[in-house]
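Protocol check, entry for the methods section draft. Step 1: assemble the input record (protein sequence plus ligand SMILES). Step 2: submit for complex structure prediction. Step 3: store the structure tokens unaltered in the notebook. Ligand used here: adenosine-5'-diphosphate. Step 1 record:
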Amino acid sequence: MEQTVAIDIKGLKSQFGGKVIHDNLDLTIYQGEIIALVGGSGCGKTTLLQQLLGLHKPTRGEINILGMDILKPGADLRSLQHRWGVLFQQGALFSSLTVLENVTFVLRELTSLPKDIIEEIAYMKINMAQFPVDSVHKYPSELSGGMLKRAALARAIVMDPEVLFLDEPTSGLDPVSAASLDSLVLNLQKSLGLTIVLVTHDPDTLWTAVDRVAFLGDKRVLAVKPMAELIKDPNPAIQEYFSSERTQRKEDHGN
Ligand SMILES: Nc1ncnc2c1ncn2[C@@H]1O[C@H](COP(=O)(O)OP(=O)(O)O)[C@@H](O)[C@H]1O
Ligand SMILES: [Mg+2]
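Step 3, stored output:
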């Protein structure tokens, strides 16, 4: 089956000062897939997402997103910013704005749509993100972790993005909230045809929500495969990572 490339990363080298984070990293992500980035803490997962968003410049390499070579001098990143949504670990919502104000923010900034249409779109996304509508006038500080993520997700999809970037979306959530966020992300992918790139440690997410897993180690992508194949990869770094308890599939332990 012919697959369309959404994101193509070639020969990426990244460093902070003299410290090399990525070296000769390659990764191809296809349109409509859910791909997870995994690897030990500090291996450069968040940095890679930031580079895809143009927030951190690699030392060398190519990054093509939705047909645009974003590292080329003069690349118009702003034209891409409508085409992706982002849910990062921290700082997802403006604390001084209500949920509704947070979700409408980008529409108010970037479009000249009338207020009632903006609110209509916002409510649609709030519903899609399964955020309780009776809480839209609350401030972020009044929300639980799971509700915060849903509000941030509503904001991330408000511009109908083609690609969604999520950095550890289920971290800090209890297992039930985490599972429901996973199924929500999966539904969004299906209903909106999104390409989703997420960083996660969550074994349930890796086993149930993701099409392929890209394993970062040794400063590059060591393997990209569905989880069931990845855990059979003989690479010692991969074996070591998945041998730890937290990454085991729950069903394998019985009860
Ligand atoms: N702004 C920064 N300045 C200096 N070093 C950084 C910066 N951001 C990240 N790093 C370093 O880069 C490495 C990769 O970080 P990060 O991408 O956050 O890893 P991960 O998300 O995989 O845990 C870490 O060693 C981290 O200390
Ligand atoms: Mg990180």
